[in-house]
Amino acid sequence: MPTTITDAAALDHTAAERVTAIIEDAVRARGAAMVSLTGGHTPQHLYELLADPRQPWRARIPWEHVHLFWGDERNVPPDHPDSNYGMAHDALVAKVPIPPEQVHRMRGELEAEEAARAYELDLADAFRAARRTDQTFDLMLLGLGDDAHIASIFPGSRVLHEHTRRVAAPWVPHLHAHRITLTPPALVDARRIVMLVEGPKK
């Protein structure tokens, strides 16, 4: 059910509590939490809150049992200012005790189609290592762009019709760039989806 919150700080705190509870439940039920992150300003505030030692959520999350993935990435290196991984690394990953081998980034520095195919293999390996029989995420964090795109699936994209691959590398004409993105089958299969939508344009 959608939750409408009129205060930005309350949105961040509500999201932090919900995300933490989902991770705790996944670890109790399945031994690990497979979590897909998203980019953007709204989730950045959430990540900073989850990593803040003054807040309760950092200590509650069993980071040693968390695997982090990304829902989409720009076709840029990880240290580029537009990198979704780079943002999440600085806001969250570098500040919490998560094992490095459990951080599974999209390799945006590669050619886009190569990066997409490599990430499909990475997903298979990571879920197999976590003793999962399928590639169902426990938590899918998503945002919503002003143009209604989710992950890097834009209105009218061919990726909307993808039914077999779990990662694709569409060309986005109005951005004159490729993106690497999870596909609809990967998104909708998630056990829990938390969409962070903020602002009057959305």
Structural commentary:
This protein has a single domain (8-196), classed as Rossmann fold (3-Layer(aba) Sandwich), CATH 3.40.50. The relative contact order is 0.17. The chain has helices at 8-30, 41-51, 57-60, 84-91, 112-129, 184-188, and strands at residues 33-37, 66-70, 72-74, 139-143, 167-168, 171-172, 177-182, 193-196. α1 packs across α2 (41-51). Helix content is 34%, strand content 16%. By secondary structure, the chain is of the alpha/beta class.
**Total DSSP helices:** 6
Helical/strand content category = alpha/beta
Query: Reading side by side through the largest sheet, how are the strands ordered?
Result: 2-1-4-8
Shape: globular
- How many domain units? 1
CATH architecture classification:
3-Layer(aba) Sandwich
- Rg calc: 16 Å
CATH topology description: Rossmann fold
| Biggest sheet overview | 4 strands, parallel
Helical coverage, percent range: 25-40%
What's the N-to-C terminus distance? 17 Å
CATH class: Alpha Beta
| DSSP strand tally | 8
Beta fraction: 15-25%
Order of helices and strands: HEHHEEHHEEEEHE
Overall mean pLDDT: 95
Uncertain ranges? none
